[in-house]
Design a protein that fits this description.
The structure is a single chain. The chain is of the alpha+beta class and 676 residues long. The protein has three domains: 165 residues, Alpha-Beta Complex (Spore Coat Polysaccharide Biosynthesis Protein SpsA, Chain A), CATH 3.90.550.60; 193 residues, Spore Coat Polysaccharide Biosynthesis Protein SpsA, Chain A (Alpha-Beta Complex), CATH 3.90.550; 194 residues, no CATH class. The strands form four sheets. Strands 10, 11, 12, 13, 14, 15, 16, 19, 20 and 21 form a ten-stranded mixed beta sheet that branches. β15 and β16 form a beta hairpin. α4 runs parallel beside α6, α12 crosses α19 and α13 packs antiparallel against α14. The termini are far apart.
């Protein structure tokens, strides 16, 4: 092995090492997911921002780009496009063969070691790379930092007819802002190179959890029995996960039952005591996950509980990585995973969630990043460490000690339960870490518009419950936040959404006991309320409506900056308030608006419009009613005043620990058994 100045060595004093990140390869759907595991090597290039702190790495400044910069960009693209293809083959879950003269890189989402996260949240001082290699070639070791500089960390020459163990040790320096460790494998021109059983190890003596830990998995499902069944099969078939598994609490809240699936009996027999099948009334995600958390703590065997969506597709290795990261963390953490897009498997839809607790806009660190077109090595923003404020409960590992201390989820059916829990945990000293290399595949949100569904009630109600719980005083912009939600929906002619928003504030003003009291009836009530609005009436056939009077033309001047968007909003809002129009008696819609074009400008001067749903399955005849909109705005001003006046009282009531206590949930479970 050729050593570099970064001290690749095998001399770290440690009694034993534990593999915490196995290098794995896909054995199913490899054609859809391979870039997440291994990619063709291309010539690495470092952009200017990595060396010049004045350059923004995340934006392209075309205004100041000169000819040389443009030509460099084009050459880099051409070089990448000319990279060799099919230079390696994944032989098994843990074995990679690099063809003669081929070159593969393991700087990928699932196989690069997230060193900066281990540096920040654990006491680990060194990391060891291990593998078994055969054939002729070279293993090149690399590290990166927060600015995505990629210094070589050493190389290992391979010339072995039989499988030979190789290793190298990395120190944990230069990782405060970000960075990964990884290896590339290059075969000689006259021989293949096989790399197997590769992984990243850490010293066992630096493990916080001194005993072997176990987990339970909490899955909640409602009438998605086939999806849930697939999740159970995937876990049942992964021996490494089952070695650490106490039981899966599968909480079935539906009428299309998982236990009636054809393969259920066989899977249940296979899992044995590692499956606990529960039934209860439909209590939403909050109730389903709380039941799994409750049962895990009540049984008292597991150190952790993993919340896992029923319709997610898991990378089983991610479950082990979350558990092992928790084992080494300096203090208990909530360890979350990213969400990869189910329909576009190489796209990272979300990794690292953030929210302003007072203003309440939702953000994520990396959204819609396609690792097939933008590999990890060439994506500087992905090498930076991001400290998430919360993680969605599509996948989240929570220590049972934390649950016993801070309680269960807020009893709100759906929406904001995961956000509130992470904030509550952090207030008690337990942050959330969204760990790269830990993820599930899940459907994204692009085919939903919550404002056009009954879910708008829970979204708006619970965002204000969240704000009340974590802020003793209202923000100065609170009335603006109330109004902005209504204005946005009103300018899109979604008056049902405004009605649900107002009902949401009215209900939360009554206090937490009222919210608990309507737990099982709220959904039916808001569905009924929404059905009274014309914009709720969707059909599946355009011919059920009259032909639009004119063809829709996309607005030629679309707002592109925050200032222009604000101006556009103000103009449209002023027209609605001062020059009210009425489209309720329109005999035919003015235009048909595709859902992607459903912006404020699209409705400028339109009395009624056919608007398709985000999922493309239905169409609604939206009718303008500016006088109703004006009354709604007056009602919003009144409700925001009421909310401000009662804020301190409501903060005290909603932040009472009894609201999320085991006792409160025990009563909810008792009052909502499974239907006979």
């Amino acid at each position: 092995m050729k050593q570099s100045d970064t001290h690749i060595a095998d001399s770290v004093a440690a009694s034993a090492w534990e593999t915490v990140n196995r290098v794995v390869f896909p054995v199913k759907d490899a054609d859809l997911t391979l870039p997440l595991y291994a990619v063709e090597w291309t010539r690495p290039h470092v952009d200017a921002g990595a060396q010049d702190v004045r350059v923004n790495q995340l934006r392209v400044d075309t205004k100041h780009m000169n000819r040389r910069n443009l030509m460099n960009l084009l050459r880099e693209g051409a070089a990448d496009a000319s990279a060799p293809e099919n230079s390696f083959t994944c032989l098994s879950r843990t074995e990679l063969e690099v063809h003669k003269g081929g070159h593969a890189s393991l700087c990928t989402y699932f196989n690069a070691f997230p060193a900066s996260y281990w540096r920040r949240w654990t006491a680990v001082s060194h990391v060891r790379f291990v593998a078994t290699a055969a054939g002729k070639g070279r293993i090149n070791l690399f590290r990166s930092n927060g600015r995505r500089l990629i210094p070589p960390a050493g190389s290992i020459n391979i010339d072995a007819d039989a499988p030979t163990a190789v290793s190298g040790t990395f120190d944990m320096k230069g990782l405060m802002d970000g960075g990964f460790f990884w290896f590339d494998a290059q075969a000689a021109t006259d021989s293949t190179l096989t790399v197997s059983d590769a992984g990243w190890q850490v010293p066992v003596e630096e493990r916080r959890a001194k005993n072997r830990t176990t987990l339970s998995i909490a899955i909640t499902t409602f009438n998605r029995a086939p999806y849930c069944m697939n999740q159970l099969k995937a876990i049942a078939g992964e021996a490494s996960v089952r070695e650490r598994l106490d039981t899966i609490y599968c909480t079935d809240q539906g009428t299309d039952l998982v236990c009636n699936q054809p393969d259920f009996e066989a899977v249940a027999e296979n899992l044995g005591s590692q499956l606990t099948y529960l039934r209860q009334g439909n209590l939403g995600g909050s109730g389903g996950f709380s039941r799994g958390m409750y049962e895990t703590c009540k049984t008292g065997k597991s150190e952790y509980v993993l919340l896992l969506d029923d319709d997610a597709i898991s990378e089983p290795e991610a479950i082990l990585r979350a558990v092992q990261f928790e084992d080494y963390a300096k203090r208990p953490l909530l360890v979350g995973g990213g969400m990869l897009h189910l329909d576009n498997r190489t796209v990272l839809w979300s990794q690292g969630e953030d929210i302003d607790g007072r203003q309440m806009p939702l953000r994520n660190a990396f959204g819609s990043h396609d690792f097939a077109t933008n590999p990890l090595r060439d994506s500087p923003e992905c090498h930076q460490r991001f400290d998430a404020q919360y993680n969605g409960w599509w996948m989240c590992l929570i220590p049972t000690s934390v649950i016993r201390e801070i309680g269960l989820a807020i009893p709100v059916f759906i929406k904001y339960d995961d956000i509130d829990y992470a904030f509550r945990a952090k207030e008690h000293g337990y942050p959330t870490v969204s760990l790269p290399g830990v993820a599930v595949w899940h459907q994204g949100w692009h085919d939903k518009d919550i404002s056009r569904t009954w879910e708008e009630y829970f979204m708006q109600r619970n965002r204000w419950i969240f704000a009340l719980r974590h802020n003793p005083e209202p923000s100065r912009t609170m009335p603006v936040n109330v109004l902005s939600a209504d204005i946005n929906m009103g300018l899109h002619l979604v008056y049902s959404g405004i009605g649900l928003h107002h009902r949401a504030i009215q209900d939360l003003l009554r206090g937490p006991q009222y919210i608990i009291g309507i737990y099982s009836t709220a959904m039916a009530s808001v569905r009924k309320l929404r059905s009274t609005f014309p914009d709720s009436q969707a059909v599946t056939d355009f011919d059920e409506f009259p032909e639009p009077r004119r063809r829709f033309v996309s607005p030629s001047t679309r707002p592109t900056t925050s200032i222009r968007r604000a101006i556009d909003c103000a103009v449209n809002f002023g027209k609605a308030m001062l020059l009210p129009r009425d489209g309720r008696k329109s005999t035919a819609p003015d235009v048909a608006v595709p859902t992607m074009e459903s912006t404020w400008n699209a409705y400028n001067g339109v009395d009624s419009a056919l608007v398709t749903s985000p999922d493309g399955n239905s169409v609604t005849w939206m009718r303008r009613d500016d006088r109703l909109f004006r009354r709604d705005i007056n009602e919003a001003l009144h409700l925001s005043s009421e909310l401000r006046r009662n804020w301190k009282r409501l903060h005290t009531a909603y932040s009472d620990p009894r609201f999320t206590s085991f006792e409160t949930w025990e009563q909810i479970f008792k009052e909502h058994p499974a239907p006979a």
